[in-house]
Amino acid sequence: MTTLEADLNASRTLIELATRLGRTCLDEQTPLEKELETPEINNTVERIERLLTRTDPRAWQHAPRRGYASLLENTEAGRLLYGLKSFYPVGHLAVLRGLCHGALDLFFEDFRGRLELSDGVPFPYATRPIQPIFREETTPYQLTIGNRLLLKKTGFRLFDNVDRSITVTLDFSFRDQLDAIAWPSSWLPPPPGDELRPLNCLPRIGTIHTRLDKDRLDYKIDKGRVFWVRPKDCSLDETWERLEAVKQAQIAVLPELSLCSPDALQQKIEEDHKKYSPLIVAGSAHAIVQEGGKPTRVNECHVYIEGKLALRHRKIRPLDTRHIGNEPPPKDPIRENIDPQHQLTLLSGAKTRLAVVICSDLVDVGIPRLIEECGVNLLLVPSLTYRTGAFTGTTDKLATHCQGLSVVVNPILDKVESHARAPFTTIATVPRSSANRKSREYFLPRRKTNPYAVLDPNQPLVGALQWG
Hints:
Elements (H helix, E strand, L loop, with lengths): L3 H7 L3 H14 L1 H8 L2 H15 L22 H8 L6 H12 L1 H7 L4 E4 L4 E3 L6 H4 L7 H4 L10 E3 L8 E5 L3 H8 L22 E4 L8 E6 L2 E7 L5 H9 L5 E3 L12 H6 L7 E3 L3 E7 L2 E12 L2 E7 L5 E2 L12 E3 L6 E6 L4 E4 L9 H8 L4 E5 L8 H12 L2 E5 L16 E4 L5 H4 E4 L9 E4 L9 E3 L1
Parallel strand pairs: 4-15, 5-8, 7-14, 8-9, 16-17, 17-18
Antiparallel strand pairs: 1-4, 2-3, 5-21, 6-7, 9-11, 10-11, 11-12, 13-14, 15-16, 18-19, 19-20, 21-22
Helix pairs in contact: 2-6, 4-5, 4-6, 13-14
């Protein structure tokens, strides 16, 4: 057990201090919440919170020469905290809540770095005023749902790692561009009977469905392991044509393993990005990369924002499948032959928290829980699967708990003999409260020769996807 004063003076930066306080609060959450049930203690915490909110937030950005405790000397907040010393760790929580309202708000207001999350790190919600679009059909704000948590309505929550095999990082490097893309100015007409129209809306998403049916899929299977899954034709002419055809969408997404190398699109996007959507999730590809002096097999996806490589995501959970190309179903599942990965990076802005994961990542146990824990409100998923699986379990939870928009994009694949139709091309989930209007699965229309479409998630999903 460390005293509040010890934590204040041991910290050299605001984030280090906030993490120490947050970790202590998480470790002692049960007795802490019990103490807060006493009205006098709870009222004192709220009083300290208000007093710290009024302090100069700039003073907390770096530790003073005599330590952070010096900022509380000879203050009413310091006197009240002294009175809470016997109610460990109530004082930690009071200071942390006060920092959330001032110093931490200022820190994250213009933060453009990378923040690795560990237990107790406080991080801001990414929220946007989505109610004007869906009206009473909107799922609740994260702040409303999180009101019972330790930080209540401060606009922050404490990270609690639910899968310690994965390191989570929030990357704010593209914060302004990301918010402009994912919460663009509205083109929507005003709702019937309403003279006002929302100033912003959800982004339109172009979906590119590479044809991998009719013996167009190449792969290598060895001893029940599959790798080098890719199109037999690695030319990109049709891909570029389809990307240009959906350029009116803010985002374009290609399917998993639809490219022959992870960086296949990079040079042309960098040279002429204005011809395409400002954010492109460039499918994925199998590759062997050198790491630590040894070859590592990966399934890697590149994400570009305004012509710049913003994110590399490597698939964490390998696929197990009984369906691949025209292979007869094996007795035992075939496993994707990729090496273990342990990194999940989320692109973040003030209004947007974007996760890009690959196919079976979404049906893992830990990854969906981490995505939800971090308040992801935009989820884009390149996939290659013959079955829908458990995708909508995760996407529905994000829509409910984070007002999340999720889109899964699949290639054109052959129909499995036991199925009534060919696999889906797109799954979309939006933050509508009505269960039968929240998610929809889309399939390639008959006689459709140009397999690309644009999804407008602001419209009812039944007519939201327009094929090219």
